[in-house]
Write a structure and sequence with these properties.
alpha/beta; about 725 residues; eight-stranded mixed β-barrel; Beta-Lactamase; TIM Barrel; five-stranded antiparallel beta sheet
């Protein structure tokens, strides 16, 4: 079958037209024959239906009741015979003719199987049997008649035989005439169709031959070929399209050549762009794990390498050492000679450290002038000492930068696995501590980590060193503790509290690092960062719909005494866009009492900006009512030490009531901090305290948690 279809597809159009004509002729003949057969069969079927209809009508007229009166039944059939001009017989249940349109047959037995079966099962049957009025055979129908024709289950009492030969022959004669005319019409239409098809094939094939010749010429490169066509039919349109195509092909060829050139150029540019993206991705991955200045691994990459080395050392039972290298007085060189010289010095130190060590050892730069070294196969402590001396000697050699000779030294701290620690954070931390021990010993030397009585001192030095880098590394963050208005129940403000998330030590308590920051002076840049971050966060919350809250920020003694405080505050308010009325700066009683004149001048200037002033930890100092009146203070915060034992200590209750009364006298806003129980809250509310702050209401929260808390609280209230 597949071969036949393929052969037909590959045949010429002339042959296909001939095949199609033959198929059409065969189909027309089949349709004509089918139509003739249908006409003939429909005539016979119509005669049968008419006979059944009349016979059933006779059986349903109630002749069952008259079967016992043959004379009456005979007259009834004779009248029907005149009406229908047919032979009709009525048989009883024994097939005796009890009435007939031909009286001669009455009383005789009708011997034929079809009526006998109908009398038994009640099914109408068509058959050919003896004619009632002639000796021949006739087409007849036998239908049962029941005693009660209205009920299908009534007993069958006889059979009606209705003859329809003449009607059948008449209908079949008419059907035969119609079939003959149908056949003649089909033959005429087929002959006409063959003639028209032959003529049509000539009309189609001639221009197609022209098109074939034109296509062959065009395929050979003859773009000037044209096909002439006089008609405007589909073939004429095809010829016009062919001519247009021939005209366009040459233009398309030229355009394709140009497009190919452009595509090649675009492909080249795309390849170059892909290479750039690959290089950028590689650069991003490189920067994620390397120091951009020196090309050394950074803290992250060093941590991964140390972790892998620790797993190998644990499996093989080996030791390893971590060296913390810090250049001595590098800041002085950087500030004196400039950052360019400092960068050149750091690159040279990096190269010298790599050259002083084995290729299997890892050298990393933490940032600034700090380096980490990992020696993975340590035979004994003496080897670590030798390596430390090699590094110190390499760094101590003179440098030439900017046309002048420089000398720099380093302090090296050493921690050893497994005796000093078994994880990355501990070993790096103890190497840092040991480095400060080396600095305490006079610099330009090394020290192993020692768990001595002075360990806390070295821990503090390490913490101080890490604090210097906390801001630039983004390790500081703010939490916010909401304050609740005791009159309205609403959240009226929040206090910004600084937190330090050390990469190795985790969260460090403010009680540990704030005193160090205050002593070293780091508290000033930290305080500026806290103020700027808190103001910016408040603006973001106001833009998000969380309005009506004052942000309180603590000023440390050193920050309060800083000569640039007023300029810094004004600049931060302008930079962040926060209205000064939403900012509250908190100071302690002792800060007021240290230098009253300076404090008054500073606070007055802050008030002129529109900033609110709060006195924190009130009650722990020595200020009197008359002293407090001298300062432009808006708020007093009762120290948590008085709140803690309110429910059990009568003295604390008395002092708290005194502070509340004094605040009312001075018309100051009063805030109680450190409220942790409902009893404390009830006491303060009854005495007229304005706000509370403490774990009873909420602990300090990260920014996202704070936003969620406030939104949920306000939604629940409303």
């Amino acid at each position: 079958m597949t071969t036949l279809v393929r052969s037909f597809q590959n045949a010429s159009i002339r042959w296909k037209l001939m095949v199609n004509i033959l198929v059409v002729a065969a189909c027309a003949a089949a349709i004509a024959v089918t139509a003739i057969n249908l006409q003939l069969s429909s005539g016979g079927h119509a005669a049968e239906l008419e006979a059944e209809h009349v016979a059933n009508a006779i059986a349903n007229t109630g002749i069952a009741g008259a079967i016992s009166d043959p004379l009456l039944l005979q007259r009834y059939l004779e009248s029907l015979g005149k009406l229908y001009e047919r032979d009709i017989m009525i048989l009883d249940h024994e097939l005796m003719i009890v009435a007939s349109t031909n009286p001669k047959g009455v009383g005789s037995h009708y011997d034929h199987p079809e009526p006998r079966l109908t009398a038994i099962d009640g099914i109408t049957r068509l058959f050919v049997g003896a004619d009632a009025s002639s000796p021949g055979l006739a087409r007849q129908v036998a239908v049962p008649f029941r005693y009660d024709p209205l009920h299908a289950d009534s007993p069958i009492v006889g059979t009606v035989i209705f003859e329809y030969t003449l009607f059948h022959d008449r209908l079949m004669g008419e059907a035969s005439k119609a079939a003959a005319w149908t056949g003649l019409a089909a033959i005429f239409i087929l002959a006409l169709g063959l003639l028209l098809t032959r003529h049509l094939s000539q009309i189609i094939l001639r221009p197609l031959d022209h098109l074939k010749a034109g296509v062959s010429s065009l395929a050979g490169g003859g773009y000037g070929v044209r096909v002439h066509s006089e008609s405007q039919d589909e073939i004429g349109q095809l010829a016009t399209a062919f001519n247009d195509m021939a005209e366009d092909l040459d233009r398309s060829r030229l355009a394709a050549e140009k497009h190919a050139t452009d595509l090649a150029h675009a492909n080249l540019l795309l390849q170059q762009e892909v290479e750039k993206h690959k290089a950028a991705a590689q650069q991003i991955e490189y920067l994620a794990y390397h120091d951009p200045l020196t090309g050394l691994p950074n803290r992250t990459r060093f941590g991964h390498a140390l972790g892998e080395a620790l797993r190998d050392a644990h499996r093989d039972g080996r030791s390893l050492a971590v060296f913390f290298v810090d250049l001595d007085r590098f800041k002085q060189i950087n500030d004196t000679l400039g950052h360019d010289t400092g960068d050149l010095l750091l690159k040279e130190v990096s190269a010298r450290l790599r050259n002083a060590l084995q290729s299997s050892d890892v050298v990393a730069r933490l940032g600034g002038d700090e380096f980490l070294v990992l020696v993975t196969d340590l035979k004994n402590p003496a080897q670590a000492e030798t390596i430390a001396r090699k590094m110190l000697a390499a760094i101590a050699r003179p440098f030439v930068a900017g046309g002048q000779e420089l000398r720099v030294t380093a302090s090296v701290g050493i921690s050893v696995y497994p005796q000093d620690g078994e994880d990355e954070q501990t070993l790096m931390k103890y190497a840092d501590v040991a480095m400060y021990q080396a600095k305490e010993s006079g610099r330009a030397t090394f020290a192993f980590y020692a768990k001595s009585s002075n360990a806390n001192t070295f821990e503090r030095l390490a913490l101080e060193s890490s604090l210097r880098r906390a801001l630039e590394r983004g390790e500081l963050l703010l939490h916010y503790q909401p304050k609740r208005d005791l009159t309205t129940g609403a959240i009226s403000g929040m206090e910004a509290l600084v937190r330090w998330k050390h990469p190795d030590l985790g969260m460090i308590s403010p009680a540990q690092f704030i005193p160090i920051a205050e002593e070293t002076g780091f508290i000033v840049p930290i305080g500026k960062w806290v103020l700027r971050t808190a103001c910016l966060q408040t603006m973001q919350w106001q833009a998000a719909g969380l309005k009506g809250m004052t942000i309180a920020v603590n000023l440390s003694p050193r920050q309060f005494a800083d000569e640039h405080l007023l300029d810094d505050v004004a600049a931060i308010l302008k930079e962040t866009g926060l209205d000064a009325e939403w900012l509250e700066l908190e100071i302690t009683e002792s800060m007021l009492m240290q230098n009253r004149d300076v404090a008054l001048k500073t606070l007055s200037a802050l008030k002129r900006m529109g900033i609110r002033i709060a006195v924190d930890d009130f009650g722990t100092g020595y200020s009197s009512l008359s002293t407090l009146k001298q300062f432009p203070v808006d708020t007093l915060k009762i120290d948590r030490s008085f709140i803690r034992d309110l429910e059990t200590d009568a003295d604390d209750r008395g002092l708290t009531e005194a502070i509340i009364n004094m605040a009312k006298t001075l018309r100051l806003h009063l805030v109680a901090e450190g409220v942790e129980t409902q009893g404390q809250s009830d006491f303060l509310q009854k005495r007229g305290c304005d706000e509370l702050q403490g774990f009873l209401f909420s602990p300090p929260l990260a920014p996202q948690q704070f936003e969620t808390f406030v939104s949920a609280f306000r939604a629940a209230v409303h």
